[in-house]
Design brief:
The protein is mostly helical and about 375 residues long. It has 19 helices and two strands.
Length: about 375
């Protein structure tokens, strides 16, 4: 899956006895939703390529419907006002309904073609659509209409960052901070740019400045948690707990925290955090997967590992990693026929998978086929 700008993978598993064949727990980078902001109130993200359970899909659909109904009501109750149209336009763009988004933008332009917010929203629509030059042109028009606004310069920097044009990213950020030295978002975007360029120290400094300007800057706190977790620095704990307190219904910071404990071999703390996540979102299968991994690798509690992987497979019945690791847990318990069934199931999903073939070869030595 796509990763955060310029971020490297962190392998989060330990070799335990002869268990080098275990499918690893997902990394900080590859397991989480990424976060690079692209509009005033929203961000475009990379997502874990997970299958969504029917119940979760229904809940998401219901949320989308109710959100659109609310926006439609705002538009209907605010005839002649551009702001609700712009809010709905960005909603449409986020949901790949670009024609409807542009219709709302055009309606807003009819009301006030000198309103910089209209062009800022148009920039967001084009960015969601992947039309970066048009997005840049729109925000430049907004800046012409409101040359004193730092937030528009930050938006311009954000666009340059998605284009990997670092020089112009930092030029725009300097201009934003000239207009408003306390703009936390400018420091956050600077952090992302420095991360992409591989300068972790400067990234940390930028994120810390963002938090200094705005203590509840969620994205900066989360990124700080990730960077300190990668360093195995216990400062990660405070940053991630603070991020979680700002968005208590979002499991991302807790997931990173669980993986931090997992990487530092604090198995019980990792398990407690994963349980915390499941109280927030019982459908968050990564938490169950990592629970299974912790029981399998760090605690050697194979029955508990099987129970956790079973929960993953209830939601994702073709998750080959979970099937393989469950098979390995069965193998460790001496339940060789159950292990063989799982390994064979993995090969139906991943033909010629080397680790799985090795697993079957081990079983042939200790429990030959009848």
């Amino acid at each position: 899956m796509p990763l955060w700008h310029g971020l490297i993978l962190l392998t989060l598993y330990r070799i335990n006895k002869d268990l080098t064949q275990i499918m690893p727990a997902l990394s900080f980078r590859s397991a989480l939703l990424s976060a690079v902001l692209i509009s005033a109130a929203a961000f475009f993200s990379s997502c874990v390529n997970e299958k969504i359970s029917p119940d979760k899909q229904k809940n998401q659909t219901d949320t989308v419907v109710s959100e659109l109904e609310l926006l439609n009501r705002k538009v209907a109750e605010s005839k002649g006002v551009a702001a609700p149209l712009l809010e709905r336009a960005v909603y449409f763009a986020k949901n790949n309904r670009y024609n409807e988004a542009l219709q709302d933008i055009n309606s807003a332009l009819d009301l006030d073609d000198k309103n910089p917010d209209v062009y800022a929203a148009l920039s967001d629509v084009y960015m969601y659509e992947g039309k970066m030059q048009r997005s840049l042109d729109a925000v430049k028009k907004a800046i012409e209409l409101a040359p004193g606004r730092a937030d528009l310069e930050v938006k311009r920097a954000r666009i340059f960052l998605t284009m990997s044009d670092y020089k112009q990213t930092f030029d725009a950020l300097r201009e934003a901070l000239r207009k408003n030295p306390d703009n936390a978002e400018a420091f956050f975007i600077s952090g992302l740019a420095n991360e992409e360029m591989g300068d972790t120290a400067k990234a940390i400094e930028s994120y810390q400045k963002a938090v200094l300007k705005q203590q509840n800057h969620y994205e900066s706190l989360k990124q700080l948690g990730i960077l300190f977790a990668e360093k195995k620095d216990r400062m990660a704990i405070d940053y991630l707990r603070n991020a979680s307190s700002i968005k208590p219904k979002n499991p991302e910071p807790l997931y990173i925290l669980g993986m931090y404990y997992q990487e530092t071999n604090e198995a019980d703390k990792a398990l407690a955090v994963y349980e915390e996540i499941l109280l927030i979102d019982s459908t968050f299968t990564l938490a169950n997967y990592n629970k299974g991994y912790v029981y399998l690798v760090l605690k050697n509690e194979y029955s508990s590992a099987i129970e956790a992987f079973n929960k993953v497979l209830l939601a994702e019945n073709e998750n080959a990693d979970a099937i393989y690791n469950r098979g390995l847990a069965y193998e460790q318990l001496g339940e060789y026929e159950m292990a063989r069934k799982d390994y064979e199931a993995v090969l139906r999903l991943r033909v010629n998978d080397e680790k799985t073939i090795n697993g079957l070869n081990r079983l042939d030595k200790v429990a030959p086929r009848k």
